[in-house]
Amino acid sequence: MHASRYFLNPLALGYLLVVAAVAGWVGVDALFVEHADASLAGVWVFVVTAPASLLFVMLPGALAWAGTVVGAVVNAAVLGAAYRSLSGRRLRPTA
Asked: 71: burial class by Cβ within 10 Å (0-12, 13-18, 19+)?
């Protein structure tokens, strides 16, 4: 069974595009926007990759951010499996 069947569909790719856009926005906010106080923009990366990424939040340093990557991959695989399952049912002829 190939993993590409779970990731190469419109739902999983759309989700990964949203995650990439949010991560890009957070990166721009962190690097180029002056804040008088702390910014909570980084929280949005954890929100769009929840619930899997929330398991990593309490880990120190970069391990917490690794959870966002794991969360995005897990969520995309689940969405891809759901898409595949639902689209497969529609394409099968009824007897």
From this structure: buried
